[in-house]
Write a structure and sequence with these properties.
382 residues; alpha/beta; Helix Hairpins; Rossmann fold; Alpha-Beta Plaits; six-stranded parallel beta sheet; four-stranded antiparallel beta sheet; 45% helix
Length: 382
């Protein structure tokens, strides 16, 4: 059974066929040439000399350092001259076909992704280009992004041409399908962003596909970070149950911003300017050097003010994951099972993922810890 699979593997791959054809021809012709030439021709002292001459003849290079002198050897040379032209044509056509096919698949979004630690961008809407723009400008040097949507070949090619700093790959199709996620190599992806999708003529995006895609991604790769955008707040609990790491809700802050136009004019304009593509200022997330661990926030604030031209806004604390099963009793009882089930129904699995807690303008005596980072507002101008 295994032999049949091996032969089928060979027959289905033209490149392997071409290599085997050259190899078999070289060995067969070299053996015959040695048989005719080794006795009276000093240029053919062994099998290695014959292999060299056969390869030079097949490739039409013709160095002339070794020449057959027997009728049998010259007959082999004539056959190789004609056969070499045909063989090279086959090899060249095969290699060209492989690259052309790969390029066509890339354009159509049909290729298998071999990347690792890449980011999946599932779905497409007006926010997708803004996300790619942020990735392109990010200091963390995000490069490998795989888009999964139903854009046309021309639209996808236009996106990839505009974001040249990113290595964007395109997989065309429905991002809720498991086979498509496998083609995008979701097993090895580090993160996924799921957007309400309007590609492929889907003018009424819903949260159902976002929930389904989150479930599929977490099933394929339990370590992947999933950041989902939903339209309806009522679906937040479903995303939590699907184990989405973070959820963005449409218009979640629009009420506050609208009211601020009346109660605090200037506040909405501040946010609009800050998040504008033309803004010279941006929010930065930076890691603390290990030397600051265990020291108070007030010391770092003073250090930041003296060294950087920016505004220190606060710190973030990354909670470490824990296993809920560690809290259960040694002899797993019906009560433990009941507790586990209730956690799962509430959207909390047996493993609690890392969570981020932001502390704006923390107390001066706040102690900096290993998993902490700080957030600042800095100018992009050098």
């Amino acid at each position: 059974m295994k032999k049949n699979k091996f032969y089928k593997y060979i027959l289905e791959r033209p490149a392997i066929q071409a290599v085997l054809l050259i190899l078999i021809t070289t060995i067969f012709a070299a053996l015959i040439t040695v048989y005719f030439e080794s006795a009276g021709n000093p240029g053919f002292k062994g099998f290695g000399d014959a292999v060299w001459w056969v390869l030079v003849t097949i490739s039409t290079v013709g160095y002339g350092d070794k020449v057959p002198i027997t009728p049998g050897g010259r007959s082999i040379a004539v056959v190789l001259m004609f056969f070499g032209v045909a063989l090279l044509s086959v090899v060249t056509a095969t290699i060209s076909s492989i690259f052309v096919t790969r390029k066509i698949k890339e354009g159509k979004g049909l290729q298998e992704i071999k990347l690792k630690n890449h980011i999946l961008l599932c779905g497409w809407n007006t926010q997708a280009e803004q996300i790619l723009s942020v990735f392109e400008q990010a200091e963390s040097k995000i490069s490998n992004v795989v888009m999964i949507n139903q854009l046309s070949e021309e639209e996808a090619a236009d996106v990839m041409a505009r974001f040249t700093k990113l290595k964007i790959r395109f997989v065309r199709g429905d991002f809720t399908r498991e086979n498509l996620l496998n083609r995008a190599n979701a097993h090895s992806a580090s993160a996924a962003i799921i957007l309400p999708d309007i590609s492929g003529g889907n003018l009424r995006p819903g949260d159902e596909r976002t929930i389904l895609a989150t479930l599929s991604l977490k099933t394929l790769n339990n370590k992947i970070k999933v950041y989902a955008h939903i339209l309806d707040r009522d679906n937040l609990s479903h995303l939590r149950k699907a184990r989405a790491d973070e959820v963005i809700i449409s218009d979640n802050h629009s009420g506050y911003l609208l009211a601020s136009h009346v109660t605090a004019p200037g506040v909405p304009q501040f946010f609009e300017q800050l998040f504008s593509d033309a803004s010279n200022y941006t929010l930065k997330r930076r890691e603390f050097d290990p030397e600051w661990f265990g020291r108070p926030y007030s010391e770092f604030k003073e250090h930041y003010s003296s060294k950087y031209d920016g505004i220190l806004l606060g710190i973030g604390k990354m909670s470490e994951s824990f296993q809920l099963s560690d809290l259960m009793s040694d002899d797993y009882s019906y009560l433990d099972e009941f507790i586990m089930r209730k956690f799962q129904e509430a959207g909390r699995g047996a493993e609690n993922e890392d969570r981020v807690k932001i502390i704006i303008n923390p107390e001066p005596e706040t102690e900096l810890q290993k998993n902490d980072f700080y957030i600042s507002l800095e100018s992009e101008k050098k």
